[in-house]
Amino acid sequence: MDHKQADDIRQNVRDSYTQVAEASNSGDCCGVEASCCGTHSDEEINTVISTRLGYSENDLKNVPEGADMGLGCGNPKAIASIQPGETVLDLGSGGGFDCFLAAQELKETGQVIGIDMTPAMLSKARANAEKGKYKNVEFRLGEIEHLPVADNTVDVIISNCVINLSPHKDQVFRDAFRVLKPGGRLAISDVVASCELPDEVRNDLALYSGCIAGALQIEELETIIIDAGFTNISITPKDESKEFIKDWAPGKGVEEFVISAHIEAIKPVTKSCC
After folding, report:
1. DSSP 143
2. How many CB atoms lie within 10 A of CB 152?
């Protein structure tokens, strides 16, 4: 992929999710076809979407109103094994939903950092954090390929249907490796391609922003994660996800091309030679 193609994808994704954030803020989401799972001003619809993704009713009740935007393709918190005192990093934090759930696992200690490249989403997340009076959640503007986070400072990285949107996934995982502490872990929900994507799908910018066209096949994704330095890699497809993926682009049969998966890996601990 050349620089222009990558820039076009990144700008399209930024524009699409700006529309999602602004539509959500105004209460007018009609006609916005930008997110993986769609978003809607009706909180009940977002609740239905999120419960299909694996969140509990208790999860949904314990976050600020407006944080659950019905975005994502799974529940990364369910596989993250977050412990009190840890530092959690969310790649593509959106309105802050998964960050707030992670913060509840940390109790009074630890820190959650959310990264998003869309200023409108960042503003929304910060407003939600203020509403929820979260003291240990911070949101930073940045790209997931170049994280504004120091080396070896993060215990666990979560992400929910965002890495597929990057045109440079190899750089995403290299930078994730950089910021994780030795022994740190990935706990990611994302989509993978269940077959080779047709050119008309792969080259469709709307489907890229819709979490379809950027999906990689498991073997290719696993190679990228290995090359970044990770071990103990597990990529587990979720067949049941086809039931909600078909709603992302109605009538286009996208559920035949992509499926949600849990992606887990560990940054190995370097042993001293002496």
Report:
1. B
2. 12
In tens, the pLDDT along 47-84 reads 556 666 778 888 888 899 888 887 889 999 999 999 99
CA angle centred on 162, ends 95 and 15, rounded to 5°: 70
Cβ-based burial of 131 (10 A; exposed 0-12, middle 13-18, buried ≥19): middle
Residue 32: the pLDDT is 36
Distance CA(17)–CA(160), nearest Å, equals: 14
Spatial separation of the C-alpha atoms in residues 102 and 13, rounded to whole Å: 25
By CB atoms closer than 10 A (0-12, 13-18, 19+), residue 26 is exposed
Q: Which domains are present in the chain?
A: 3-266 (3.40.50.150)
Number of H helices, E strands in the chain: 11, 7
Residues 163 and 176: their CA atoms lie apart, in Å, by: 11
Cα separation, 130 vs 124, in Å, equals: 10
Q: Virtual CA dihedral for 120, 100, 128, 20, nearest 10 degrees?
A: 30
DSSP H or E stretch at residue 2:
none
pLDDT digits (tens, 9 = 90+) for 106-116: 988 899 999 99
